[in-house]
Specification:
232 residues; Heat Shock Protein 90; five-stranded mixed sheet; 6 helices; 5 strands
């Protein structure tokens, strides 16, 4: 009798884990497809348009008998330099090499600095750690991409005047929080447009997969605070 109950319990647990993995795999497929679309959109809206304008301007110069002035050449140079910055940013976003050599708090600091430069934003990065936290590569990637997605969606949708990313810790947990004073939303509706490419539900599943947790605090008109918790 006891053995039968144990087998039934184990069978139930295996079934639940199988269903969870299947659900996670489905979410990953959707997330990857949406990420590809986001990269394609970024390339089209930024790099492709800048290059098209540059090519068009150069063709006009070639077809004209007027020697181009410095202002026109500087304009072309500006478009090309912006294209290079955007391409580098996309490459870094897709495969951040800094995660190979540094801990998560340094990687996030560099990410926020780059975001502020590229988007002319002023997100405040606060590192409250006394000592570095040494996560393995998989955990670092999940945390980095989660914060990256939250910050990107915040910039696109929150209309915030003030925002900050905070890295801190308790006795046995590391905590990463993304906060803003923007438009906010009903936190119970995780399908909200601010969910972005991965979606808040997908981020929750990814955090669970590394034994972590994500908490959402938001109300319309009162900003948003999203907290990622992970055992050290």
């Amino acid at each position: 009798m006891i053995l039968t109950e144990i087998n039934e319990t184990l069978s139930k647990e295996v079934k639940e884990k199988t269903n969870r993995l299947k659900h996670l795999n489905e979410q990953l497929i959707v997330a990857e497809e949406m990420e590809r679309k986001a990269v394609a959109s970024d390339l089209h809206d930024g790099v492709v348009q800048n290059l098209a304008i540059s090519i068009s301007t150069i063709k006009d110069i070639k077809d004209s008998t007027i020697i181009p002035n410095t202002q026109v050449l500087s304009k072309i140079q500006g478009y090309l330099e912006q294209s290079v910055r955007e391409i580098r940013s996309l490459i870094y976003k897709l495969v951040p090499p800094i995660l190979d050599d540094f801990d998560i708090e340094i990687a996030l600091g560099v990410f926020i600095e780059e975001i502020n430069i590229n988007h002319k934003s002023s997100i405040n990065y606060i590192n409250n750690l006394k000592d570095p936290i040494h996560f393995d590569k998989t955990v670092k990637i999940v945390l980095y991409r989660a914060v990256s997605e939250l910050v990107t969606n915040m910039i696109k949708h929150s209309k915030a005047k003030n925002a900050k990313v905070i890295v801190s810790e308790t006795r046995n947990m590391a905590q990463l929080s993304v906060e803003d004073d923007g438009v906010g939303f009903y936190s119970g509706k995780t399908h909200h447009s601010r969910s972005g490419c991965f979606g808040l539900n997908n981020l929750k599943e990814r955090m669970k997969n590394i034994d972590g947790e994500m908490k959402i605090f938001s109300e319309p008109g009162k900003g948003t605070k999203i907290v990622l918790l992970i055992p050290k």
